[in-house]
Amino acid sequence: MMSRARADSLSGALLVLPAIGFLLVFFLAPNLLLVGYSVIARMEAGVMQYGLTFDNYVRAFSVDLYWLVLVRTVRMGLMAALVSAAIAYPLAIAIAQGGLFGRVVTLVVVTPLLVNVVIRSYAWSQLLSRQGALNWALTNLGIAENPPQLLYTEWAVLIASVHVFLPFIVLPLAAAIGAIAPEIGQAARMAGANRVRVFLRVILPLSVPGLAVGLSLVFSLTAAAYVTPQILGGNFSPLIGTLIHQQVLALNDWPFGAALASLLIVLVLSINLVFLRGAERLTRRWTAGAGN
Amino acid sequence: MTIKLNRRTFGKLALGAGVAAPFAFTRNAWAQGRTITIGIWGGSQGEFIKREVIPAFEAEFGCTVLAEEGATLANVAKLRATASDPRFSVMFVDDVVVGLCKEEGLTEELPAADMPALENLYPEFLYEGGYGTALGISLGGVFHNTGITPPETYAELWDEKWAGKIKLVSPNNTPAMFFLIVAAAVKSGKPFAEAQYLVDDSFDKVAELRPNVQNVYDSGIQASNEVAQGQADVGLIEYSKYVYPYTDQGAPVTMTYPAEGAFAGTNCQVLVKNAPERDLAVAFMNRMLEPSVQKPLAEYALIAPPISGLDLDEKTLGYVAYPQSEMQARGLFTPDWTMINAKRAEWTERLNQIFAA
Amino acid sequence: MSNLTRAAVLVILFVIVAPLAVPVMMSVSDTPFMTFPPQGFTLRWYWKVLAEPEVQQSLWVSIRLAAAAAIGSLILGIPCAIGLVRYRVPGRNAILGLVLSPLIVPLLVTGLALLQFFSLAGNRWTFFQLAMGHIVICLPYVVRNVSNSLLLANPDLESAARIMGADRWTTFRRVTWHQIRPGITSGAIFAFIVSFDDFPISMWLADAREFPLPLFLEVAIQRFFDPSIAALSTLMILLALVMIGVMEALLGIKVRRFAG
Questions:
Q1: CB 3.0–4.6 Å: which of A250, B329, C66, C81 could bond C195 by disulfide?
Q2: Residues A10 and A106 placed together within one structural domain of the fold
Q3: What is the enclosing helix (H) or strand (E) of B127?
Q4: Rounded to a whole number, what is the distance in Å from the CA of B244 to chain A's nearest CA?
Q5: Highest mean pLDDT, choosing among A248-252, B135-139, B227-231
């Protein structure tokens, strides 16, 4: 038996080895190299200086521009995650209930995922501009006269980010809600709870794991986006991705670009950790509470 | 175009006997099968170069020319990034950085002996003692929707009636430097030539324009398209080459040059130091200055040629300042680029702090 | 579901679809610049954009790249999934974490890291760089899809084949292969689409010769004055609809697994 198990794990290791080796070379090593670069080099008057340094990070946190962009990136990610969550619940409930309607909802929610992000952002820019489709409709329906333009504001970036990343929260939520046994809801209804109470007391707590996955996905994707803020933000509200791009490709300051990129990695990983751990703790407390 | 046969191509012609027809008529066999990469701009100018100039050049030399689009600063960044192992052979940049590229050792002097077309170049368009030539001159000014009354002076644009109606050029693009000079001129009341040295103290004036600015744009073409659609009334400051081709096609957008003055927007070409296929690169740069390219390029992209003796059509003359006497009569202003290059990173950060923070 | 919820769902679905209709409408405007509502009707922008050599070149680059990414990630991903699901691999969770982590680390950062890595390594083969970058981001989809079908399949069949005296290779060919074929098909399709749509990796690694379609689209938005960009967008949206139809109806692949 022993030798069989050893042979088994040996062939298993041989099977996974190519993929691991590939990822070590073309994913892990480059990313570690990038993070390392941010602390061993800096640009001084256009010339690269090598040696251990934290100047890049000091600059990122002391010049108000970079600091403000970091804050904006976090804010945009959080807002997109929360707005998506609010929109996602009715959709996820519809999907979880299945049937033809659920199937249609699934398809409509997922369709935009197959349309390139550049096209989707562009479509929003045509919809939100001053002479765009939205204002045209508002004016012609007599709802507003001379409505302001949403394009090139943070609102435009937020709206498009929610649209683009919505499926990433709807689907995990639908999976979580679908896993709730329908009898639980029925039992609560029979016990006299109204719909709102059923939602707040049953669906919401039990869907927390799906919600946490969805929130962290939408946050991460929004915070790391380049295309959407670029096309819809009008350079007024760049997120950190735009700055990384500018530092490297326009200003040629690789070490500072690497520092901003490292900050983005830290930001995304820590938010993921917070959301997922928080959800775990919340679920544990609620299930413990239910036991009393 | 006459086809001269040298001995090698003639031999090939005789041997290949028509089988190698496309190659047989190559008069520049030395370039056969070789490839150069050049950095160019977008817009009508880039389009004409990609569609007309490059295919003709490739056919004639039997070579491949890869054209990569980018703005001046991005193109310089590419040169710096590949300086030790150059990938580009020829780079198109605005006049602003020709001196900078020379100083940083990114470019080399043009071999005048191998570039017969330099003969027709107006002397003022050969830069830095031979480190670059102009390719075309457009006018720097304000573009606007034809349905509005354009501003007569730059100072007017600070008026609140323009609130949210102005598109402003991004600091990544050269004309943003024109804008800073305008702000300094409006604040001080001095002409551009003096105002350009007062930019450091004029950022409060720049910040005052903020409420009037709808967005900061990267692409002059996209911005003039949006102005044509009526999404904003005016855009500043842009090269006329990004606007006039669309004016000419009937889009409701055109240029105006407020009373304070107009800028010379000069697009140039430089030869990359240790360029791959240097001789081919030089041949391409020479081609760019030949009348057979310059005349149709000027008439297509509506930019003024930097060479003398061309007979441009009436329509084009309505859009460009040509010949040289006409450029001088209009008093087109060219800033002190050496001073500006030293300040550019700092000014960019200050602009970003006003508009992007 | 209450009528209120149903109404809310319908409104949301409308808002999801509506933006995609705007370029479709603008693409037929018979004006030399873009405008809403469209004026007149013409299909000439479609012909113009299809005849554009740069569109054709970028499309060809994207197709080659997506094919390379799909094949590469299958070659690496299929054995990896089998190893992880069917064998006792030491450090299984860590390996799974590594394989899935390209989905968590921002793509934009991975792209930049690869650019730096390749330039330090002195590699100048752009297509190779793009393909490696795309395999990194496609691999998780292949591993996940193949693992799913392995988990759904009955491992007893494999054991039975082995007991009957079949060697490992025969067992794989006769049993495992058939069990994981649906996973391989859907993994390959997901990989192709992920690569075909990628912007944040390509944006760092592409050059003039290898310029994938999504990058061209972004440049075209800034460059095309007339409605031909709207026409191109419409074509891309139609392509997406066709793909969804094919995947759901013919192949029975659940499109939603993309995001799950």
A1: C66
A2: no
A3: strand B126-127
A4: 22
A5: B135-139
pLDDT tens for residues B172-214? 888 999 999 999 999 999 999 999 999 999 999 999 999 999 9
- Indicate whether A87 and A124 sit together in one domain: yes
The answer on A127 and A177 residing in a single domain is yes
CATH number at residue C108: 1.10.3720.10
Residue A11 sits in the same domain as residue A112: no
φ, ψ for residue B136, nearest 5 deg: -175, 150
Residue ranges of A 43-102 with Cβ closer than 8 A to chain C? 87, 90-91, 93-94, 97, 101
Q: Pick the closest to residue A119 from C240, C69, C138 (CA basis).
A: C240
- CA torsion angle for A268, C138, A157, C212 (degrees, to 10)? 130
Q: Do B222 and C32 touch (CB under 8 A)?
A: no
- Residues of A with CB below 8 A from B218's CB? 235
Tokens of B282: 């030089």
- Write down the pLDDT at residue C255: 64
Domain that holds residue C135: 61-258
Domain shared by A241 and A161, yes or no: yes
**Tally of domains in chain C:** 1
Spatial separation of the C-alpha atoms in residues C130 and A26, rounded to whole Å: 11
CB contact under 8 A, C225 and B229: no
In the predicted structure, residue A289 carries a pLDDT above the cut 70:
no
Chain position carrying tokens 């290059």: B341
What is the residue range of A24's domain? 1-53
- A68 and A158 fall within a common domain: yes
| Residue A276 sits in the same domain as residue A258 | yes
